[in-house]
Design a protein that fits this description.
globular; 26% strand
């Protein structure tokens, strides 16, 4: 997943917590091996190779993730789509390089994109692609799913107050932060530095929610806002770390799977949700949908909150969406 994962917990409160944290990070390794499209041996790569020729049975939790992604695809009007692998490749972002494709290339890639072409058989836990060339890429939901799985393990081991983050942009917070929080980390290449850094400025660590900072999308050394999380997850999407310029215009790596072109309505989108998979996926969807689409979604789903950052002149403006005033503050 090309980022650093960390677990923060109070080792004094949970003596067995550090061992549980290490086991949780082992879950990260296992899921990386399952979900990545950068290893031919992964389960998702196997699907991309075989699922048009025949239905492919997958592991139960992975199948449930596909079901969740398809529900979110429908709920977001296609703004979140895990079948957009062909688009990622044609724009060069698969290898993190970036290139300007022709309109013909984009149009051709779009014929291979769309979750309506993803056939999920719940009885057999099997997946089949209905068009040739379709490719799954879980970059918009995989880290969140991984954090949810880590949280399940920690909770099963009796650890109920902790924070986990993946690459700073995906965060799961449970309970409150204790005074003796300890970090266990696992690192891989190219850590994403786009957004929030876990940070505590707590006057009463025994009863105060986790405090999560949001970086300024144009000035990464500055903090823009702060969120208070308790039994919630947070995800932030932005194109500050992956983009290229062509003929004087900037093109970011977050693509609108409905049009095939990079989304450009906002600078960043942060979502707070009950699960990390939701927060991760919806932050990408809201980046694509923009403020109007985010507002419409949150009107239907009251448990979802968001903060969208838009450019205004040389600066930025913040747009909270269904976000209670006591749960965040502008810095």
């Amino acid at each position: 997943m090309a980022c650093e994962f960390e677990v923060l917990l109070d080792a004094k409160q949970y003596p067995a917590g550090p061992d549980a944290a290490v086991d949780a990070l082992d879950v990260v390794e296992a899921l990386e091996a399952q979900l990545t499209v950068y290893r031919d041996t992964s389960e998702v790569s196997r699907l991309n190779q075989q699922a048009y020729s025949q239905p492919v049975v997958v592991e139960k939790k992975l199948f449930e993730l596909f079901l969740q992604a398809k529900v979110l695809w429908e709920a977001t009007g296609g703004a979140l789509d895990i079948t957009s692998g062909a688009l990622t490749k044609v724009w060069g972002f698969y290898r993190r390089l970036g290139r300007m494709p022709s309109e013909t290339e984009v149009a051709e890639a779009l014929t291979k994109v769309g979750s309506q072409h993803l056939d999920l058989d719940a009885g057999n836990k099997s997946v089949r692609f209905l068009v040739p060339g379709l490719e799954l890429n879980l970059g918009a939901i995989g880290k969140g799913h991984t954090l949810d799985r880590c949280a399940e393990l920690l909770s099963s081991r009796g650890v109920h107050d902790f924070l986990i983050h993946g690459g700073n942009s995906s965060v799961m917070a449970r309970g409150v932060r204790g005074q003796g929080s300890e970090v266990r980390s696992q690192e891989s290449s190219n850590p994403k530095s786009e957004i929030p850094n876990p940070k505590s400025e707590l006057s009463n660590p025994q009863s105060t929610p986790w405090s999560i900072g949001l970086r300024h999308p144009l000035r990464p050394d500055q903090r823009l806002a702060e969120f208070m999380l308790h039994d919630q997850a947070l995800g932030t999407s932005g194109s500050g770390s992956q983009f290229f310029h062509h003929q004087g215009k900037r093109y970011g790596h977050i693509l609108d799977p409905r049009t095939g072109w990079p989304a450009e309505q906002v600078l960043s989108a942060t979502v707070i949700a009950p699960t990390a998979a939701q927060a991760d996926a919806l932050s990408t969807a809201f980046y694509v949908l923009g403020l109007e689409g985010a507002n419409a979604y949150c009107e239907k789903y009251a448990e979802i909150s968001a903060l969208l950052v838009k450019q205004k002149g040389a600066g930025v403006e913040l747009h909270p969406v269904n976000l209670p005033e006591d749960k965040w503050r502008e810095v």
